[in-house]
Amino acid sequence: YSAGQFFFEYLVVVSLKKTSDGRYEPKITYQFPKRENLLKGQKEEEERLLQAIPLFCFPDGNNWAPVTEFTSETFSFVLTNVDGSRKIGYCRRLLVSIPPPVHPSLAHFFLPQILDEVEKRRQISMAVIYPFMQGLRESPFPAPGKTVTIKSFIPESGTELIELTRPVDAHLEHVEFQALLQRLSPHLILHIFASAVLERRLIFLAEELSVLSQCIHAVAALLYPFSWAHTYIPVVPECLLDTVCCPTPFMVGIQMRHLERVLDQPVEEALIVDLCEGKILRAVGDEEEILPIKLQNEMLTSLNRHNNNNNIHTSEQVNTLVSEAFVQFFVRMVGHYASHIKWSKNGSGTFQERAFCKAIASKTNRKFVKKFVKTNMFSLFIEEAEKSRIPQEAYFQQKITEYHEQKKHRR
Asked: Total domain count for the chain?
């Protein structure tokens, strides 16, 4: 998401096409841009990507039939490359025979706004999509806090200007904490956070694809400045439900209609969350004891403050308040990491894990950190920190500095 990148890699339109035996299959019916003159390896990568997209746009199995009513929804999916890198796709699913309801675009999340514009043009002609997407692709991707203006022409409507603003805090892009808070109590959110921090298996259940993707993205965002480093599938296609038998950590979303099949699987030590009823169906049992109790209570107070504060109206305000509570947790727990990286003359750093843990005065905090330093997400964070004296996560570093200044002031 650095400035200068493209807004998107591909736009594809996926439609259900009737096969000779009367079934329906999702097929790509439009693709932009069409890539030519690709090298063999690039062509194979593109083919893999384009074969997977229809499956994730229609993850509900193959029992599709014509319908007269369909609720339009926007959701996301993640495709993981062989090298572990991820591509995020955003899907607007709708019934094309009736006009879709207008979706209010989230102020901090401009991809739905782009999908709205694409849909306007698709209703006129597929040919009208091309110039808009070409103009968008040629526009500079804005830096955090900046706005880009795109000229948009629609036949009989003329030219209009579309402004897309990127949020100042890049770590809150494409995140909607409100979706999580509407479905789960603060107490349960902390249980989920505790399980995610120790990289356990997490299964989320809901019927709506949009609910699954919004809530799972929100849970992953609670881990900032760390990143979930394992299997991550916001919406699992029916044919991949066996993913829940994986012995390694995962964070997945599954439609509620598959609940019995999931419960019948030999799932080892997983947290299973029902987003429809707002409850945990299955837990390991120690979720209450993972986080240091004092900090756990402080985060609970912050989340409850959101529930009791009627002055919070915008999604940005909600995101800032919720994110701040969890960022402060990591500032207090591991904010001293930089002072325990020993630098050699050639500029490479070595993390002093033992001294880092020993520097924590509180026994309960130290107990938690000793487990946390063994996780993949912490190891990857430290690997990046060892490469350069310049912090990778500027926002996190800013919060660490603020915390230390406040401590000095109190003294």
From this structure: 3
Q: How far apart are CA 227 and CA 378, in angstroms?
A: 9
Q: What is the pLDDT of residue 385?
A: 92
Residues 15 and 158 in one domain: yes
- Residue 379: half-sphere exposure toward Cβ, Cα within 13 Å: 8
Task: Tell me how far apart the alpha carbons of residues 79 and 354 are, in angstroms, rounded to a whole number.
Answer: 37
Q: Are 114 and 127 in contact (CB under 8 A)?
A: no
b/e burial code for range 339-367 (CB count within 10 A of at least 16 → b): ebbeeeeeeebebebeebbeebeeeebee
Closest CA to 151 of 135, 138, 166, 130: 135
| CB count in 10 Å sphere of residue 162 | 18
Report residue 215 CA to chain centroid gap: 8
The parts of the chain modelled with pLDDT lower than 70 are: 1-5, 61-71, 82-84, 94-113, 167-170, 173, 307-313, 392
Domain-located, residue 105: yes
What whole-number distance in Å separates Cα of residue 164 and Cα of residue 136? 10
The residue out of 142, 166, 190 marking a domain boundary is 166
Write out the two tokens for 354.
Answer: 């033992």
Residue 118 has a pLDDT of 77
Cα distance between residue 272 and residue 261, in whole Å: 13
In a domain, 56, yes or no: yes
Whether the CB-CB separation of 75 and 67 falls below 8 Å is answered with no
Q: Report residue 92 as tokens.
A: 């607007």
User: What distance in Å separates the CA atoms of residue 274 and residue 203, rounded to the nearest whole number?
Assistant: 9
